[in-house]
Amino acid sequence: MLTWVVYDITDTRKRDEVIKICKGYGLYRVQKSVFLGNLNRNELDSVALECKEAIDEKTDSLYVFPMCDDCFGKIKLIGNAFDKELVSDEIISKFF
Fold first, then answer.
1. Where are the chain's structural domains?
2. Per DSSP, which regions of 42-95 are E strands?
3. What 3-state DSSP class applies to 66?
4. What is the pLDDT along the chain (96 residues), one digit of tens a residue?
5. CB 32 within 8 A of CB 43
6. CA 96, CA 34: separation in Å to the nearest integer?
7. What is the C-alpha separation between 89 and 36, in angstroms, rounded?
8. Rounded Cα–Cα distance for residues 75 and 18 (Å)
9. Among candidate residues 34, 45, 28, 43, the one with its CA nearest the CA of residue 88
10. What CA–CA distance (Å, rounded) separates 16 from 69?
């Protein structure tokens, strides 16, 4: 399932840990504080749990949004947007 991870983390060390977690699950960085990729339900739960442990819930925020393929197909990319082909199931599966 396509999953967005969006965060606002003030501490550089904690932010770097979340980046490492997201990259470790093969998520693609689409903006400085936004990752997107294909995760199964267990991976989605694991990312959320690992990120929760990495941040300070009093000062930081992190969102994990699952998204259906139909909704992803309706995204409007404006400006210097990410390449939707890089996060499709077909392309990502080649990297594993």
1. 2-93
2. 61-67
3. strand
4. 899 999 999 999 999 999 999 999 999 999 999 999 999 999 999 999 999 999 999 999 999 999 888 887 787 777 776 666 666 554 443 343
5. no
6. 21
7. 12
8. 25
9. 28
10. 29
Angstrom distance (rounded) from CA 78 to CA 81 = 6
Q: Which CATH class is domain 2-93?
A: alpha beta
**Hunting for tokens 């739960």 — which residue is that?**
45
- What are the strands, taking DSSP E only, across 1-96? 2-8, 28-31, 34-38, 61-67
- Pair of tokens at residue 78: 């404006």
Residue appearing with tokens 């400085």? 32
For residue 49, the 8-state DSSP code is H
